[in-house]
Design a protein that fits this description.
Elements lengths: L1 E5 L2 E4 L10 H21 L7 E2 L2 E5 L9 H12 L8 E8 L5 E8 L5 E3 L10
Parallel strand pairs: 4-5
Antiparallel strand pairs: 1-2, 1-3, 5-6, 6-7
The structure holds zinc ion.
Zinc ion binds next to loops.
Length: about 130
């Protein structure tokens, strides 16, 4: 979940953390994610044009932070899904390097299927 802070610039304000697992766990965690989103909207006074769901994130702890083919396909499907109704979605993939610095990638997915790479800046960390 993030804040629109300028032209083509967004700040990640809150993250939800989920773990993989069974379908039952997925359902519980989808419910938890929905509650997290509702809480975020309440804390940001329902200013949806400024604060909203940005997309998904996960880590690739031991390999490249570039999205996998499956990552791209999943995000393209979500962005194209009229039931999702998103103007755009973002995928952030991160990992820590040996010095515990955050490394990551950002990709933007549009409903027309366009995929663009963005620039991830980590606050308090030199680019
Ligand atoms: Zn991935």
């Amino acid at each position: 979940m993030g804040e629109h802070i300028g032209p083509n610039a967004f700040a990640v304000r809150e993250l939800t953390v989920q773990s993989g697992g069974s379908f039952a766990r997925f359902v519980r965690e989808a419910r938890a994610a929905l509650l997290a989103l509702r809480g975020f909207f309440a804390r940001t006074q329902n200013q949806y044009t400024r604060f909203n769901y940005l997309g998904e994130w996960h880590s690739h702890p031991s390999f490249s932070v570039e999205p996998s083919t499956t990552d791209h396909q999943s995000m393209i499907e979500m962005a194209r899904n009229p039931e999702v109704g998103a103007n755009f979605l973002v995928l952030m993939v991160v990992k820590l390097d040996a010095a515990k610095r955050v490394l990551g990638s950002i990709h933007l997915y549009l409903p027309d299927g366009t995929v663009s790479a963005g620039e991830l800046l980590v606050q308090g960390q030199d680019p």
